[in-house]
Amino acid sequence: MGKRVLIRIEPVTDRAGLKEFIRLPWKLYHSDPHWIPPLLVERLHTFSQKNPYFQHARWQCWLAYRGQEPVGRICAQIDDLHLSRYQDQTGFFGLLEAEEEASIFHSLFQTVETWLQTQGMTNVRGPFNMSINQECGLLVDGFDSPPMIMMGHARPYYAHHVEQNAYEKAQDLLAYRIGVHFSFPPRVSLFLKKAKTSMHIRPLRRKYLKEDLAIIKDIYEEAWSDNWGFLPFTDAEFAEIGQQLKLLVKDDFVQIAEIDGEPMAMLVAFPNIHEVIRDLNGHLFPWGWLKILWRLKASYPRSGRVALMGVRKRFQSSPMGAAMAYGLIEAVREAVLRARIQHVELSWILEENKRMRHILESLGAEPYKTYRIYEKHLQ
Question: HSE (CB half, 13 Å, CA atoms) of 151?
């Protein structure tokens, strides 16, 4: 019988280690037809000092080795904005990937927890890649289809091994899916027709992009401020979102609802660029983003994702708030129909957000993926 090789954990300290860290999923998902290879340049940017997240956060990543072979990875993050807002001494883990072996998961989590404790943390939560405003949650249901843009994927065995290390559910994040040829229920159509006399819905104004991005950010931060785990975007972080909107999103994929000329609600949808990058195997060169933009022109995706939606607090429990939500959905539906998109994902939605879930389910949307955030108290 061969000698069992012990698992060794090493910190990522140089560019060679970082490349090995980033490349590990290619090995783990090679047989998974639903995995989408991420763009390597995008993953490198995640760890670059140019990433605005690191203006308020610090991190450390590790690789697990069996002999000289990488078999797992994990990252720990401490976000000073989170600590300032919540005063809960909570650190985070993310970017978890590993072969199906209990000792690998145990060693990775033990390493993260020890590091967080040395930094004064008493709780750990995750996965976040890197923050709640980026990819977050572990896929625990819905492995039979590829992830949408800015959403994660996982192997089915991950959840078991996370839970075996004493992590418990903190929140479930739901992804809903709906075909865009749905019809509004008659009562909703009548309700919306009456409400339209009191509101105006308009698309993003490319000429006034800076002003409209500020409106979207302001509505988002007010609408989401009481939600579990909420953290506002910094100006630098939202500027990156704005750049993505500018490059990838048609003006009418972004809709703003106004009452008496004042913006009160918004919705932002993205084309699912995973459709146009899945065969690139992570590589953009030699043409970089021009390759993506050309592909978007030549063969537009048939799916999309509603990634941001919000209604100002004063309307959230009112009929007008529901009317604005329905009106925004109607306007974006017409836009994606013009683009010949066939279905969209609406994500993520907190499991406890009954109001938003009711609106989506009234239109026939169904939850088809569940992403779980775990937490653990550190002894």
Answer: 32
Cα torsion for 156, 160, 161, 164, to the nearest 10°? 180
- Contact in structure between 60 and 76 (CB atoms under 8 Å): yes
d(CA 343, CA 217) in angstroms, rounded, equals: 26
Mean pLDDT across 161-183: 98
Indicate the pTM of the whole model. 0.95
Q: Which CATH class is domain 178-369?
A: alpha beta
Count of beta carbons in the 10 Å neighbourhood of residue 152:
20
Give the C-alpha separation, 351 to 227, whole Å.
Answer: 11
In this predicted structure, the answer to whether residue 357 has a pLDDT above a threshold of 70 is: yes
Contacts of 38 (CB under 8 A, 6+ apart): 25, 282
**pLDDT band, very low/low/confident/very high, at 344 (cuts 50, 70, 90):** very high
Q: What is the dihedral of CA 318, 324, 327, 329, to 10 degrees?
A: -100
Q: Tell whether the model's pLDDT for residue 1 goes beyond 50.
A: no
Number of other CB atoms surrounding residue 42 within 10 Å: 12
Residue 71 and residue 7: Cα distance in Å, rounded?
A: 9
The pairing of beta strand 123-126 with beta strand 90-98: parallel
Looking at CATH, the fold of the domain delimited by 7-173 is given as Aminopeptidase (3.40.630)
Question: Residue 112 above 70 pLDDT?
Answer: yes
As annotated, the residues of the chain forming the CATH 3.40.630.30 domain(s) are: 7-173, 178-369
* Cα–Cα distance measured from residue 121 to residue 243, given in angstroms and rounded to the nearest whole number: 34
Per-residue model confidence (pLDDT) at position 225: 96
For residue 285, what pLDDT is reported?
72
What mean pLDDT, rounded, does the chain reach?
95
Angstrom distance (rounded) from CA 349 to CA 309: 10
Q: What contacts 24+ positions apart, CB below 8 Å, involve 291-299?
A: 292/248, 293/247, 296/248, 296/271
Position of tokens 């939560």? 125
